[in-house]
Amino acid sequence: MEWRVELAEIEKRKRFFLEGEFKMDGIELDVGYCRFIEPIKVKMVVAKTKDGFTVGGYVKTALEHPCTRCLKPTRLEINGVIEALYLPESMRKNVKEERLETLKNIVYYHETEFDLSERIVEAIVVEVPEKVLCKPDCKGLCPFCGADLNEEENHVCDKMIDSVDSRFEALLKLKEKLKEVR
Ligand SMILES: [Zn+2]
Ligand SMILES: [Zn+2]
């Protein structure tokens, strides 16, 4: 399935659908590389407008994303929306308005061929929430030893005592050193 369209085709057909599977193994996110665990199904409609054209549609898939608290690979459903207005470069107004237009998803073009896969990736990325939890009450990991607190309900950490001790020791050493300097 090709996600490329040509301006001439849009002018001629006025309005048409693109439907199929988008091929991509995974995606680089803030948390790292996440792979797709379902096919990426896309439905799109391209429609000519007075000045340019619009692209609208849906993206449906699922990602394997680490749980924000315990890092366990977690299934994340993606139901993304594609919504973009393409306008010729000549219609670009001043720079001040540009930020607002980015929010409204206006794409200015000077080319005559478009790769709509950018819109698909964009629709997926904005659907990824800041927090992904393996379950709503995930207890996360012990900050001292990394033990999964979902599995060890009454975890008492011996590393915690260790790390407090060693920090205390380091502080004592530092104090002694300071004395020497004086
Ligand atoms: Zn979790
Ligand atoms: Zn621990």
Outline the secondary-structure elements.
Blueprint: E1 4-6, H1 7-13, E2 15-22, E3 26-29, E4 32-35, E5 40-48, E6 53-66, E7 73-88, H2 98-103, E8 106-109, E9 113-115, H3 117-125, H4 158-181
Parallel strand pairs: 7-8
Antiparallel strand pairs: 1-9, 2-5, 3-4, 5-6, 6-7
The structure holds zinc ion (2 copies).
The site of one zinc ion (ZN) has 7 residues, from loops.
How would you portray this structure in words?
This protein is 25% helix and 36% strand. It has 182 residues and is an alpha+beta fold. It has 2 domains: 122 residues, no CATH class; 44 residues. Helix 2 links the parallel strand 7 and strand 8. The structure holds zinc ion (2 copies). The site of one zinc ion has 7 residues, from loops.
